[in-house]
Hints:
This protein is an alpha+beta fold. Helices cover 47% and strands 7% of the residues. It is globular. The relative contact order is 0.12.
Amino acid sequence: xxxxxxxxxxxxxxxxxxxxELDALRExxxxxxxxxxxxxxEYRMLGNGLKRSLFDxxxxxxxxxxxxxxxxxxNVMPEPINDWHVKASQIEPFRVxxxxxxxxxxxxxxxxxxxxxxxxxxxFDCWLEQQEDKYINPTPPCRAQFxxxxxxxxxxxxxxxxPPMPPMDLYEGVAADPSAPMDPSxxxxxxxxxxxxxxxxxxxxxxxxxxxxxxxxxxLAGVVIVGHADRAGSEAxxxxxxxxxxxxxxxxxxxxxxxxxLISTQxxxxxxxxxxxxxxxxxxxxxxxxxxxx
Length: 294
């Protein structure tokens, strides 16, 4: 074990062993309702756990990005099942579980049972991640956590019937269709930048790969990239900085085969922060480009 790796497992130095996304989420104060605040915290813990215990930076970054969106007060949906490599014989329990979450949301679960539904959602995403990684335990821990939190949430939504969770082994060899693709209009991808930088960080490659794959799988009217900056520096400088960040992301997508005429770019400078700060304050969460679909 290297010296740096040894230091990274010491609790008092863990903050220095994250990723740009995890660091940004850690430094961000969540806003919005109790559900989105709890969701951001749960995704932060999941991302930190994946990075520290399993050294799984790509998945840790993915969940950190979801946490950042939740921290801004926006609703973030549970993972689409077909975004993960789950065998057809194992899909049905996930379909049932995700359906329970969506029904709970429709019945006001985000408001009535905010803590339980937020924990259930992140446990569901964690369960998917564990299943894709072929977790050796036949009952992945996050599956049990999902069942506990989901049942607690449903008990507070008295009009809601509680369907049983199908056992995983009952579906071995049974073909099941994956869940419907995610609505493109709901997708949002975040690419973060270092302070005063416009170059894409190494961690951004996985994000842009995922975006390019999603574009190829959908019939989209367009891809919109919006560049942002924090409030360190002048407003005019930050306008130019955010333009260059949007252009860098555009170039990254074009290099992955995304047609140039499908992409449009915008820049907001320091005027649309994810986290509100005073002037001349460095804020990692605000140094970003957002990718959405039309």
